[in-house]
Amino acid sequence: MKRKRILFIIAAVLIVASAGIYFYYGFLFKEARNIAAESPDFSITAGKLLEEYNADPKKADALYLNKTIAITGTVTKETDSVITLENTVFCLFTRKIKEKQLDHKVTVKGKCIGYDELFQEVKLDQCTLN
Predict the structure, then answer these.
(1) Per-residue pLDDT tens digits of the chain, which is 130 residues long
(2) By CB neighbour count within 10 A (0-12 exposed, 13-18 middle, 19+ buried), where does 113 fall?
(3) d(Cα 53, Cα 50) in Å, to the nearest integer?
């Protein structure tokens, strides 16, 4: 009787330890998404995206938040790793942009991280130029 109880306790501890390790590595430390390799969920212009956020921010968040989107627009501001499209879409790149894109029409793919009401800009990160 005592031997069965000890085996049961050891089996239970192993199951709990295995579940803990799976949870720790499977959920808490997932690899980051590779936005550059993903195909975009939506393709939209910068002006249309801002219109949708101004009309209904909650609905737009439900559609675009944490999704990979491709946005087309004219570059109005540019720094080493940031491009702003039509003064409405803020695009943060993971690497410095080598070519100057100011006043050129471009398509940027990135992950939508929300709408900044203070600056009235839609924000994207992990962006790449297409």
Answers:
(1) 788 889 899 999 999 988 888 877 776 666 677 888 889 999 999 999 989 998 998 999 999 999 999 999 999 999 889 999 999 999 999 888 888 888 899 999 999 999 988 988 999 999 999 8
(2) middle
(3) 5
